[in-house]
Structure formats: C-alpha cells, structure tokens
C-alpha cells in the first residue's frame, strides 16, 4: 500500500483512545553539556499548546509526526480556503469575487516577508519549492562545462533539475557531504572549481534534520563570486531565521509543510539587489508592469515579475491565513517549543540501548526533524505501516531502510512521542 493511500485510509477514531497507560518510557531530563536545559514545558503541555491543538482536528485522530512531509492545517485555514474557493469557482469574474480573490493573494506577500525576515519586494509567490528552485536554475546562462554543487542529501526537487541541466546543457553537478559531524563549509569549498556557478543546498536536511551553517557558507561563496540557493522546504516554520541575515542569494520554500498552509503554496525569496540580475525565464500574463502590441515590455519591479498565468488564488488566501495564525500564537513560543521537544526526544533516543540517534543535538544544528535508526534487521517501511494502521501514529520512512523520520512541531505532545517510542520498542 502506498503511503498516501494509507494515510487517506486511516479511520478517524480519536487518537487519545489509542493511548494505553502502560506505554510509558523512562527518560532523562539532563541535557548534554553546553545545551539549553529549560525543558519545563516539554512533558507538561502548556495551555497554549492545548488551545492550538483544539484548532487542529487531526490531533484528535492521529499522532501526527509527519509534518516534514505534509503539514496539517488548522480549521481557520481550511475554512478560508473553502470560502475563497467558492468565490473562485462559482463566479470568479463577478467584481466583488475577483476583488476578494486578488486581495487574498496580495495579502500573502507581506505576511511571507514579515515571517521570514525579508522585504516584500523580494517575495515571489510560487506553487511549490520545486518551482522556486527552477526559477533560479533556469535564470542562469549555463555553458557546457559549468558546474553546480549540491549536497549528498537533496530531494528530487533539486536532483532532477540538475540532471536535466546535465542532459540539456552539459552542466556538471558535484555533491558535497552534509553528513553529521561533517564540516559543511569545508566540504562545499572542496568541490568548488573555476567553473562553479552556483551552490544549491538544503538549509535543513530532510534525512537528518541538520541545519547547515548558511551564513558562513554564503560568506565563503561570495568571496569566490559564487551565488547560494537554499532549499528551505524543511526550514521555514521549523527553525528560527531571517532571510536578511542569512546572506543567501535565493531561498525557495513551501507553505504546505512546517508553515501548515495548503498544498500548492510556496514562495521564492530573491535578494533585492539580484532581482535585475536574475533573468525571467517562465513568464506570461501578470508578470509585467506594462506591455503593448509592438513588443515593448516592462517587468514588475519586484518578485511579481516571476509570477504568471491563472492561479488558484484561494490557496494563497489559505497560506496567508496560516501565517496569520502562526503569528497570533507567537514565533518565539513556536520555535522554542520545537527546539525543546527535539532536544528531549534526541536525548531519549541517544540513551536507548536499542535505537540510535541519526540527528544532531547541538542548538546550532538541531531542528524539529528527529531521525531514529532502528536495530539491525528492522524495516522502517514495515514499522511505518504498522504504526499507521495499528497505532494511528504517522511518521515517515527514509531512504536508509532502517531510519524513521519523526517531525516534532509545536502542536505535538510529549505523550505522543513517548507512545511512539513504546510502540517502536514493541515492533523492534
């Protein structure tokens, strides 16, 4: 059974009914030396967490520990999408509907900018992270023998376009290791050559949850005249950062994972000083500030120049609503809770005699993605299926057949993690 089909087929009995009193694990409250020790709100859920869980129906149905794949949306996002979709499908040309839809889309850009520490003019609304990556990759005037550097843990969103560059333009790709304990900057620079045009790499690894040192990497690359494109699919809404602090030239992200927005929503951030130096490749109606029938064209002066064609504006209205909701909760509370949950979970796994931790624990490299390595002979895919079908716990298997990825977002509870570890202990 495919993972998506399995998730769709889950019954909707409340998850709380699945928890058994005997499913408890002994855990250590002592963090490693040099790490934050304030874990007071991890095992006892604060009122604000209980409140937000009340706005997320999925938390009453399953233990949702798979936000790194697709994030669940709160009721208000679902309601906003439904409301706007009715406008767009029922009478999109009716002036009042057209105005509401356009306002919903336009409201999204300043919210993205504010949440991610960017300028509004640097924001392009896209449909997925892959689209943003392609906008950048196809803006470059590639020559045969040019090189792009990726990491050894990239999603097909970056791998497949890179293979396409090789196939069409003979652009070579190199891979730098971002494995645990690897010096990422040194690893990337080792791959740099006089033909390197771009480094495209994940800000947070989907396979380990490791946060790469983006600022240091950007500085090292810029001193060599090389631009940096970050895949932020696993970072936006997961870790605290500001685009204007990172030093990256380009940043592509999606709205449907840690930001809890609808599928079909994303954003690309392009440094303001690079807008004019990033040629438009994909274009059409709405990319332009003005044009005429004689071939004259003026682009929008901001990120809208990369947006074109008919769009599902109701989705962007839902994305905006998700960002408003996250802001209303408080970004400090959100990111602090993610960090505390992942630290405590990592320590539990690390202290286990049966399981191994395949994620970093340090404050600078830790994210809400915690990867547990199962004992020899165990299958992550088989355990994933059992957890979903029998225990209503949703995690994600990875390329390594013994690894399971656990996504700990602010709405998750320590009870959910404890129950997961108990069931893993049973199945392994």
What does this structure look like?
The strands form four sheets. A seven-stranded mixed beta sheet has the order 2-8-7-6-5-3-4, sandwiched between helices. The chain has a four-stranded antiparallel beta sheet with strand order 11-12-15-14, covered by helices on one side. Helix 9 links the parallel strand 6 (227-231) and strand 7 (250-254). The chain is globular and about 70 Å long. It is an alpha/beta fold and 428 residues long. It has two domains: 3-61 and 330-427, Aspartate Aminotransferase, domain 1, CATH 3.90.1150.10; 78-327, Type I PLP-dependent aspartate aminotransferase-like (Major domain) (Aspartate Aminotransferase, domain 2), CATH 3.40.640. The model is unreliable at 16-37 (pLDDT under 50). 37% of the residues lie in helices and 14% in strands. The two termini are 21 Å apart.
Reading the helices and strands in chain order gives HHEHHEHEHEHEHEHEEEEHHEEHEEEH
Give Rg in angstroms: 22 Å
Total domain units: 2
Task: Describe the strand arrangement of the main beta sheet, using strand numbers.
Answer: 2-8-7-6-5-3-4
User: What's the CATH architecture of the largest domain?
Assistant: 3-Layer(aba) Sandwich
- % residues in beta strands: 5-15%
The shape, in one word, is globular
**What is the CATH C-level name of the largest domain?**
Alpha Beta
Write the layout of secondary structure elements.
Layout: H1 3-8, H2 47-54, E1 63-64, H3 75-90, H4 95-116, E2 123-126, H5 129-137, E3 147-151, H6 156-169, E4 172-176, H7 184-191, E5 196-202, H8 214-222, E6 227-231, H9 243-246, E7 250-254, E8 266-270, E9 288-291, E10 297-299, H10 313-329, H11 331-351, E11 356-357, E12 369-373, H12 380-391, E13 393-394, E14 396-397, E15 403-407, H13 414-427
């Amino acid at each position: 059974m495919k993972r998506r089909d399995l998730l769709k087929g889950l019954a909707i009995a409340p998850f709380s009914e699945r928890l058994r009193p005997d499913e408890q694990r002994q855990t250590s409250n002592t963090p490693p030396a040099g790490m934050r020790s304030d874990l007071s709100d991890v095992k006892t859920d604060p009122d604000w967490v209980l409140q937000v869980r009340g706005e997320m129906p999925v938390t009453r149905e399953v233990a949702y520990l798979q936000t790194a794949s697709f994030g669940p949306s709160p009721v208000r996002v679902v309601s906003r999408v439904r409301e706007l979709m009715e406008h767009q499908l029922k009478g999109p040309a009716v002036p009042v509907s057209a105005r509401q839809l356009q306002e919903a889309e336009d409201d999204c850009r300043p919210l993205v900018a504010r949440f991610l520490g960017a300028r509004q003019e640097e924001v392009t609304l896209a449909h997925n992270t892959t689209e943003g990556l392609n906008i950048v990759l196809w803006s470059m005037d590639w020559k045969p023998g040019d090189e792009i550097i990726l990491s050894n843990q990239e999603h097909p969103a970056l791998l497949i376009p890179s293979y396409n560059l090789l196939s069409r333009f003979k652009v070579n790709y190199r891979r730098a290791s971002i494995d645990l304990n690897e010096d990422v900057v040194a690893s990337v620079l080792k791959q740099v050559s006089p033909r390197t045009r771009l480094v495209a790499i994940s800000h947070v690894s989907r396979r380990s949850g490791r946060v790469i040192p983006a600022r240091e990497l950007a500085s090292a690359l810029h001193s060599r005249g090389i631009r940096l494109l970050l895949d932020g699919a696993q970072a936006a809404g997961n870790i605290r950062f500001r685009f204007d602090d990172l030093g990256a030239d380009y940043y592509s992200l999606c709205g449907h994972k840690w930001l809890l927005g609808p599928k079909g929503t994303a954003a690309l951030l392009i440094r303001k000083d690079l807008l004019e130096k990033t040629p438009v490749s994909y274009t059409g109606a709405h990319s332009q500030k003005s044009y005429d029938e004689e071939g004259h064209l003026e682009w929008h002066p901001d990120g809208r120049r990369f947006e074109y064609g008919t769009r599902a504006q109701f989705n962007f209205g839902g994305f905006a609503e998700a960002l408003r909701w996250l802001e209303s909760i408080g970004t400090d509370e959100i990111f602090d809770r993610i960090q505390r949950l992942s630290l405590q979970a990592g320590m539990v796994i690390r202290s286990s005699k049966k399981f191994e931790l395949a994620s970093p624990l340090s404050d600078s490299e830790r994210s809400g993605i915690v990867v547990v390595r199962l004992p020899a002979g165990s299958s992550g895919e088989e355990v994933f299926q059992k957890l979903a079908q029998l225990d209503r716990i949703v995690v994600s298997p990875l390329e390594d057949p013994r690894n399971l990825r656990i996504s700990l977002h602010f709405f998750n509870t320590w009870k959910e993690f404890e129950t997961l570890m108990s069931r893993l202990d049973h199945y392994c």
